[in-house]
Design goal:
9 helices, alpha/beta, binds ligand Z5A, about 55% helix, globular, Rossmann fold, 5-stranded parallel sheet
Length: about 220
């Protein structure tokens, strides 16, 4: 049986990594094989491109060129990590995916929607569409403060160093995406305490993807 594909989206410091990890742990505790991955990155080739993108050296090339780089990374990631895992029956949990490109490069970077969708068609197609996406929604100031406190004295990366106004626009763009695709994207209030957020996510996963039915006979056998 093919695995399920879940993505986490949201602004800086919204809790994506925290909750991707918590969900993976909970699924694994039930005996489900999980691959936790992230974008940009998630495969050896894509991790090299991640470094280029987050260092900011590609920023002067413009948002369109950055969109091509994110797409090149995604292509490698989908072919080498995501599809093989899904085909092997594993659940894939990915920290950021197509909606990040739609929002960061599309809505904020003004890259034409037609180009973004074209790149998406080539890299993701129908085979690697996420079935369920959690949008962790927090005000920009909350997310940035969390990210800053986690970072300590280290320098902000290419996107962390954008203004609060940029991050508020990002939040609005994410919410607009969720409103347009309510069947896939579930908005979760990321300001709530970690345990509350984790429980809400688990309830939705149980309702929509029925983890118990994914267990193989060997996995449930005493
Ligand atoms: N990008 C793009 O432009 N286009 C694309 O197509 C893709 C990406 C795929 C990747 O950055 C950057 O690439 C991203 C968009 C761009 N840039 N930004 N900004 P990244 O992978 O380095 O970072 P990130 O994706 O933004 O993640 P993050 O900063 O690590 O945030 P997070 O994963 O959402 O948060 P977290 O690490 O889970 O939590 C942050 C802190 O808050 C941490 O100390 C937690 O313990 C704490 N936390 C979490 N939840 C709570 C609650 N509920 N209460 C209190 N504290 C909490």
């Amino acid at each position: 049986m093919r695995g399920h594909f879940i993505t986490f989206e949201g602004g800086e410091g919204s809790g994506k990594s925290t909750h991707a990890a918590a969900l993976a742990e909970r699924l694994q505790a039930q005996g489900i094989a999980v691959v936790r991955t992230r974008e940009p990155g998630g495969s050896p080739g894509a991790e090299i491109i991640r470094h280029i993108l987050l260092s900011g050296i590609a920023k002067p090339l413009g948002a369109e060129a950055e969109a091509f780089l994110f797409a090149a990374a995604r292509d490698d990631h989908v072919r080498n990590t995501i599809l093989p895992a899904l085909e092997a029956g594993r659940w894939v949990i990915c920290d950021r995916f197509i909606d990040s490109t739609r929002v960061y490069q599309g809505a904020l970077g003004n890259v034409e929607a037609k180009l973004i969708r074209g790149l998406e068609r080539i890299t993701v197609g129908k085979a690697a569409q996420p079935e369920l996406t959690f949008l962790l929604d927090v005000p920009a100031t909350v997310g940035l403060a969390r990210a800053q406190s986690r970072r300590g004295g280290a320098a902000a990366d290419r996107f962390e160093s954008e203004s609060v106004e940029f991050h508020e626009k990002l939040r609005a763009a994410y919410r607009a995406l969720a409103a347009a695709e309510p069947a896939r994207i579930v908005v979760v209030d990321g300001r709530a305490p970690r345990e509350v957020v984790a429980e809400r996510i688990w309830t939705i996963v149980e309702e929509r993807l029925h983890p118990a039915s994914s267990l193989s006979i060997e996995a449930v056998a005493p």
